[in-house]
Amino acid sequence: MKVCPHCNTPNNDEFTFCKACGERLDEDMEISSSYTTEYQQPVAPPLVPNVMPPVAIPQREGYNWCDVCAIIGFICSIIGLFTFAIILLPLGLITSLIGCFGKHLKGLAVAGISISLVATLVRVGMILYENAMIPDWIISGLFW
Ligand SMILES: [Zn+2]
């Protein structure tokens, strides 16, 4: 079985020309195979090392997932002040903590942590107070 180098059509071995496109089969087979080995070796290796690092490294130094987490944590903490506190405040706290490992948005991450922490404490305090789970001596101490 010969495969046409021009159109990849399988041809019988006794055929000299491709039955589909008329390309010569014997010589072109060898030429095309030597072409592919010569063609792939110089082109393929430089393509990956030369193009990837200059593009990837500045992006990595710019913003990474920790910075994204800082933004998400801050937004979750803010939204958690108003709604879905039981989900968003812990989520905001965790993502803000991850955001602290980032380089650029530590302030935002710290803000997200403090907002979600304070909001969680207030929430928990309110829930405990509404359910009368805070001892009397703490309440009298708070309002005295
Ligand atoms: Zn052909």
Instruction: From the alpha carbons, calculate the radius of gyration and give it in angstroms.
Output: 33 Å
Distinct small molecules: zinc ion
Secondary structural class: mainly alpha
Report the mean per-residue pLDDT as an integer.
74
Give the distance, in angstroms, between the N- and C-terminal Cα atoms.
97 Å
User: Biggest β-sheet, characterized?
Assistant: 2 strands, antiparallel
Protein name: Zinc ribbon domain-containing protein
InterPro entries: Zinc_ribbon_dom
Pfam families: Zn_Ribbon_1 (PF13240)
Transmembrane segments: 70-95, 107-129
Walk me through this protein's architecture.
The chain has 144 residues and is mostly helical. The chain is built from five helices and two strands, in the order E-E-H-H-H-H-H. It has two domains: 2-51, no CATH class; 65-143. 70% of the residues lie in helices and 3% in strands. The chain has a two-stranded antiparallel ribbon with strand order 1-2. Strand 1 (2-3) and strand 2 (10-11) form a beta hairpin. The protein starts with a strand and ends with a helix. Zinc ion binds next to loops.
